[in-house]
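During the reporting period the student researcher (J.K.) took over the structure-prediction task from the postdoctoral fellow and processed the backlog of single-chain submissions. One of the processed entries is reproduced below for the supervisory committee.
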Amino acid sequence: MAPSGTALVDGVAMVEKTKPVQERERWDKKIEFLLAVVGFAVDLGNVWRFPYVCFNNGGGAFLLPYLVMLIFCGLPLFYMELALGQFQRCGCLTVWNRICPAFKGIGFAIIVIATYISWYYNTIIAWCVYYFFSSMRADVPWKTCNNEWNLEKQCMRYPTDERYNDSTKLFCFDGENSTSCIFKNQTQTPTEQYFEREVLGLQYADGINRVGGVNWIIALCLLGVFVLVYFAMWKGIKSSGKFVWVTATMPYVVLLILLIRGCMLEGSLKGIIYYVTPVWSEIAKKEVWIAATAQIFFSLGPGFGVLLALSSYNKLNNNCYKDALITSSINCFTSFFAGFAVFAVLGHMATIQGKEVRDVARSDVGLIFIVYPEAISTLQVSPVWAMLFFLMFITLGLDTTFGGLEAICTGILDEWPILRKHRKLFVLFLMMYCFIGALATTTYGGIHVVQLLDSYVAPIALIFVVFLEAVSVSWLYGVERFSDDIKSMLGFRPGIFWRICWKFLSPAILLFLFVMSLIDHQPMPYADYAYPQWAIAVGWLIGLHSL
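J.K. obtained the following structure tokens:
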């Protein structure tokens, strides 16, 4: 029998529309909410992944499938989650008591996913913190090959270095009728050796099979990140709303400065042209459309519970429709804008190294910690540029971390209100728990743990969670009922376009993306590292465990 106050619809217990809770913390200013949403959505991936995905999938032509997926999938889901949080005024657990109790597991899945992400995402920020403080010297430490961490005979600045030809190894293998030999170059740039040997300590690990001990310097940087996050969150949106004034705006200032400086470098135009030149034949490939869907989905961030949590602190009559249009537009513009700053530098690096732009671009964390720092090392007053660059990434990452951990806090505190009066202690416990869980990513081989978690947590589990969220809201709760809720807030019902997207198009696109991720999924290793089968099995287990 359905509990009191519920009705059975097609055998599923549905809760009647409940009036939102009146006593609830609110944003001091509307701009703080917008900055928090923009700060969450505009993260490391906008600068790190989008430019590479764009040029690798048709350059300027990629914008067509990207915009199509924004309109028919990303934006409708973004709008839906903002409206849902604002009307119900509760977090990712309690909201399902009101929408569909049978699907409350979605809320728990969101919390598990957010926890896993906090374990590796904050470690990337910790690497940026390490670089930031390491840059506070007369010259950046990754500029030369004469440091204690360098393997001097295998270290070169550019391919023209004489050691490039002295550090090759000959590998031969017997074929059926002949013996074949290949030369494999063993040289690295000082930037690569600094990141891998000084920052990570990869020489003390054997891949993911033996990650070695904890790199305590990185662990200390990670602790600093969590301490900062704690003081940003301990008083709820009253404190985090003040932090976002800095963390959400700083990246744009720095990005503009880096773009201007990058455009003044030799070969920058070459990189920019390579970035925006459309290859129209690419848009006929399904892989390009899948990449566009995944990029817009993970960029806007529906399903993390963050939009739900942040909008739950709005006034009931706040125009969340306009908010969705503004913040999603800013997010997409930032992604494309960041590409100019990145590829101006890549064009410069390709020019001075005598390579093609494609050969210097990277899709992994190497873009942040190897390619761009290498370009910075060629500039005058390079420490200043390095500190600006890594400060930008620190603030980008912190905003996203604020959002992800606030989703956990709001979800749990709304479900168990007795904890609200102990928020400071609860947030402290959460920071300690996430820090301890993240220690595995601070080991000498921790980068392989980071890449494994990044490959399996969000790309698999999160897509399915958002699919279930869209289905439960549009089909079980009812798209017409949901539209009435929006009308009670805004004074008008969503148009037919939004209702069709919520009920049919967005769920169908999400289901297709989920199936394709299961069929074609491959882990994203660092450099050319190949994960052993047991690690891949663990990755799948982690991804499925979130469900």
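The committee noted the following: The chain has two domains: 6-151+188-545, 152-187.
J.K. will present the remaining backlog at the next meeting.
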